[in-house]
Structure formats: C-alpha cells, structure tokens
Amino acid sequence: MMILGTTIKDIAKLAGVSPATVSRVLSGQTDFYSEKTAKKVQQAVKKLGYRKNTNAVELVTQKSHVLAVIISTIQTNAADQIINGIQETAIKNNLDVIILYAGEKNADLQKKALKTVIERSVMGILLVAIDLNLQNEALLKSAKIPFLFLSIGFLENRFPFISSDDFKVGQEATQYLINKGHTKIGFAAANSESNIGQLRLAGYWKALSQHHIKPKLDWAYDGEYTYEDGIQAMNYYHQHTDLTAAVASSDLAAIGMLNQAKSLGIRIPEDFAVISIDGTFLCTIMRPQITSVTQVFREMGVKGVETLVKQTSKPFKSLYTPIKITERESS
Amino acid sequence: MMILGTTIKDIAKLAGVSPATVSRVLSGQTDFYSEKTAKKVQQAVKKLGYRKNTNAVELVTQKSHVLAVIISTIQTNAADQIINGIQETAIKNNLDVIILYAGEKNADLQKKALKTVIERSVMGILLVAIDLNLQNEALLKSAKIPFLFLSIGFLENRFPFISSDDFKVGQEATQYLINKGHTKIGFAAANSESNIGQLRLAGYWKALSQHHIKPKLDWAYDGEYTYEDGIQAMNYYHQHTDLTAAVASSDLAAIGMLNQAKSLGIRIPEDFAVISIDGTFLCTIMRPQITSVTQVFREMGVKGVETLVKQTSKPFKSLYTPIKITERESS
DNA sequence: CTGTTAGCGCGTTCAG
DNA sequence: CTGAACGCGCTAACAG
C-alpha cells in the first residue's frame, strides 16, 4: 500500500506558482528561475513535506540512476569487498545501488532478480559470482541494459567480465607450492564443472607439467568451495594419496582442510601445506593463518562501476584484475 | 540511459486489440478476456519482446511489491542469515526484495539509502542492524512507509523491532559461565555506548549480582564487535586482571580473544573460558569451536517480512526472538 | 468480453 | 523568468 504524498501541484498551489516552476526549482536547474520564487517553493516544500516520486521522474525522463547488483549467496566476505568497491564508486558517480540476492544455483531466483531489475530499467547490472543458465542469459541480453560479470570470467569473451585470470590463479598457486619443494600437490574442491574450476585446473596442470610432474587423476578432488568440501578433500587425501600439499579453491575450503588435518593429526604446514584461493579476512583469523592467492575483490567492484559508467555504444572489454601470493603460515 | 522498449500500445496494434485488453491479459486478470484474444496478445508479446515498465505500473496503481532491506556492513555474517529468511518469506508473499547498504555509522550513506527507498515508495522497509541518527529517524518516520528494525531493540518501544532480548543475552551468557564455576568474568568489546551494549551489560551485572559477585569496573572492556577489539580485550585482561572467563560481544570479537590468548600462552578453555554472542558459522570453524549465545537470525528475517505483510493500520508490536546457549569447546 | 477515456506525478517543449 | 499543454506507459472506471 502506497500512501499518497504531496505532489508538485500541491506545493505549486501553496507557493502561488506553476507546477513547471516547482519542477525547475526542485530539480536544481540553475538560472531558470528567480531567487524569490525559489524561496517560495522551498518554503512550501518544507511546510508540506514533499517527497519526490521517482517512478514518475523515471517514467518521463526515460532514465535511471540506479545500478543493480545481483549477487549469489555470500559465504565469505569476498562479496562484501566487491560491494564496498561498488558502493563507493557509485556514490562518486551519483548512482544509487540496489542489491538483489539470486541464491545459489537457483534458476528461478535468478530469473526473478533479473526480471525485477530489468522491468525497472536500471542503468546497469553488475552480476557478482553469478552463474547464469541459458534461459536467463537470453533474458539478460534481451533487456538491452549494460551489464558486466564480476569475479567470474568467460572463455571466448562470451560475456564481458572483470575477474582474476583463473588460469593464472591455478598456475601461480601451484607454482608457489612447487617452489616450496613440493612435488605431490593436490587441488581440493576443484569445482571442475564450472568455467572457473576448469581454468584453475588447467593452470594447475600447466604448472605441474612445466616441472615434469605427472599428476595422478585423484589429486584433483572435486567440490564446490565449501567448508565441508575442504574437510572431505583432506580426508580423501589422507586415506588415498601421499600428497604433501594442496591448493584449496576457497578460503572456506582451506579452513575445512586445516580443521580436518588437525583432527587427523596432520601438522600444517610441516606435514601438509595449504594455499587457498581468495585471501579474505578468514585467512588472517585462522591459526595457522592461511597462505593465499589473494584477489582484489574491492577493485573489481570499483572497476565494474567505472566501466558501466563510461559505457559507450561499443561493447565492454573484459578485464583481468591482478592477483598476488600472500604468504602466511599454512605453507 | 534507458532504452525504450515496446509498449502495450505496440503489442495492442499488432494483436489487433486495445491496450486495455493487453493490460488485462498481461497482468493475469483471469476471466476478463477470451482465450482467443489472450493468444493473440501472447504471440504479439513474443514477437516484439515486450517488457513491463514497473515505473508506469506503480505510478498508476499507487502500489509497490518491493520490500527494501537496509543493512549496515557490520555483522555481515549474521546479516546473511537474516537476508535468507527475508528472501524466502518475501517470495512466498510475492514480494521483490532490494537490499541497500548503509555503511557503518555513516549518516550520509544512511540518508541516501533511506531517500532512495522512500522516493520509490517501497511497500516496507526492514532495517537490519542499523543505528539511525536523529535526522534520519525523522526522515524515516515522515515517509509513512511501514518499517521495522531487525536485530536491534529499543527501549520504551521507541521503534518497532524484532530482535533478541539483549538483557537476557547478557544475563544468560554470564549465568552460563557462573554455572561453569567462574566468578571472575569479563565482558569484552561491550559497546557500552549503544542500546544493545547497555542492555547486555545490564544483564551481565544482573547475573553477577544475583550470585553476589561484585564486578570490578575494568571487567567490562569497551569496543565494537570487531576482531581487533577482541584482541585488545584479551590483552588487557591478561595484563590488568585475574579474570578466568569472559563474554564476547560477537563471534568475531571472540575469535580475536582466542587468537590473542594463544599468542599469550593462555589455554582455552583451561585457563580462560569464552562465550560469544551470535553463534554464526564462525563459531564452528574455529578451533576450539566457540560456545555461544545463539541468536535465530534467520527467524528474525522471516518474522520481519511476515509482520510487514500482515501490517494493518495499527502499529507493530515489537517481538523478541528466542536465544539459546550452544555449548562448544571454548568453555 | 472489449474498447474508450481519464489520469497517476513529473519533466519538457513552446509561448509568452 | 514563468505558465500551459503534452505525454511518458500503464491501469481503472465506465460504457457498450
């Protein structure tokens, strides 16, 4: 239920001017009205408690200042960092930000979120860690609203994105462990069905092969970034392999590995080294602190908004943000 | 920039009917049109790729199906649970949810978020862990939009809210430690300037006094729910007190205490017991796992939406959600 | 069952 | 500098 408020007509009447004049004053069009009328209008506004009707404004102007962020369920604060970057940059550009949750692998929720923002004709859409199904891809494209994927990359530039180079992520993580003297290196919670997972695995294999290491098939343990997947991976490694180190596909997965290692009496990093992918605050509050391939999530958000704002008619160029190894205590 | 799409007029023309009929078909008003016309309309829609203009709809109907959630960046672990509850319940009630970040103690950001949702005349506003300043309180009230605070309570029913009973939170946490045999009990990162902090402290003192324990002034160590505050509290306790246990005002603060204890060679729980307030997943991934006063954040979200939906003209009744002690390894 | 008319609140011509 | 008139896209009221 919407409560009808005072309109520019009401305040026009009270101020003794026309609605058009009120509109000019309120939308801050300098030099199109006299000081005197401006004051009259502002007094009337204060008295009646006017509030703008954005629906009407956007309907007539055919423009929106709203930037929509569609996000999948947050498990770590990676998304928090991205959102902080988005928010800050949006403010600089005079944009309002609305965030919609699309759940996790829930096509219906995704669709609902997409429809919501499309039907409101937002000025742009940022998709954070969203894995769209085909139908929703079509929906997104048909809307003709500028959009950009964040923290998720695509092959062959299927969609514009800003993310880490996940091949390099896998490669550098593995290279780091090799440099530490390891030769039997796993990849835990690899998520091999996703683009990201495949790219990281490819990087992992590349690094191994560069050092003439032949990975066994079960060195890559599948999973989905979760704490539980980390636990299971460590369990499996312990029972079935002689690995001495592993890359974990997320901070949370790494924590699962650490905890399970402790349960099994495996010392980290003496018996087993772990490097995680993400580098959120979780890495620093764990003991041992977790070495990570650190992604610059905040920067993804910043760059994402900037790209959308500078948007011309030509398509976006996708962009890789830098990664770095942050050495801590788990390796 | 908004791209003009096809309107009901366009599809009306193609289908050979009037815009009103198109509107009826599209808004699913059953029994107000024939099968035949419905089909004609739907074909035209498919061909032209129509998408609804929600601004126009809301402008004319004076109604919105959008529920706005304003959220602060603090407590983001808990906020996830609240949002899940909100989202799920919103879907059941055919509501769209938009989330706005209001930063942390940032009056300008708060104001911006409030204005954004107010000027869009959302059907309701849920404020999650938001501490409004006076000016923004006035803004919120003046909007005449139903609202509700979540996870934050007020004295004297100044605003409607759904939260844990923070007096009880402080009292039961303390009582738990007393039951464990402790008599020298601190309260870390107490946040004594906030309503919540004061209520919890009051509960803490009550529990102590019920057992004839006279707390020293410096047993309550101030702070703001953060990891760093937890570290500092433990440091202080170690240097200046002979406490054997403490309540931590958040899971993150508790983690800070645990880590600092480890650095100082203090064993948890043998030398020092900790119970944290919140009970998010952080408690279970730490080693030792952290005993907590567990709040039902998800339920706050569910109840919040339900309350807003059932809203009549009379004011909300505020509501306490249950708490429980979840014993783990830190005590 | 369907078309016509009117108007939601606002910004924007176009005259004055 | 200001007002009158128009229309954004849509639904609701009222006829037919």
UniProtKB/TrEMBL annotation, chains A, B:
<dbReference type="InterPro" id="IPR000843">
    <property type="entry name" value="HTH_LacI"/>
</dbReference>
<feature type="domain" description="HTH lacI-type">
    <location>
        <begin position="6"/>
        <end position="61"/>
    </location>
</feature>
<dbReference type="InterPro" id="IPR010982">
    <property type="entry name" value="Lambda_DNA-bd_dom_sf"/>
</dbReference>
<dbReference type="InterPro" id="IPR028082">
    <property type="entry name" value="Peripla_BP_I"/>
</dbReference>
<keyword id="KW-0805">Transcription regulation</keyword>
<keyword id="KW-0238">DNA-binding</keyword>
<dbReference type="Pfam" id="PF13377">
    <property type="entry name" value="Peripla_BP_3"/>
</dbReference>
<protein>
    <submittedName>
        <fullName>LacI family transcriptional regulator</fullName>
    </submittedName>
</protein>
<dbReference type="InterPro" id="IPR046335">
    <property type="entry name" value="LacI/GalR-like_sensor"/>
</dbReference>
<dbReference type="GO" id="GO:0000976">
    <property type="term" value="F:transcription cis-regulatory region binding"/>
</dbReference>
<keyword id="KW-0804">Transcription</keyword>
<dbReference type="GO" id="GO:0003700">
    <property type="term" value="F:DNA-binding transcription factor activity"/>
</dbReference>
<dbReference type="Pfam" id="PF00356">
    <property type="entry name" value="LacI"/>
</dbReference>
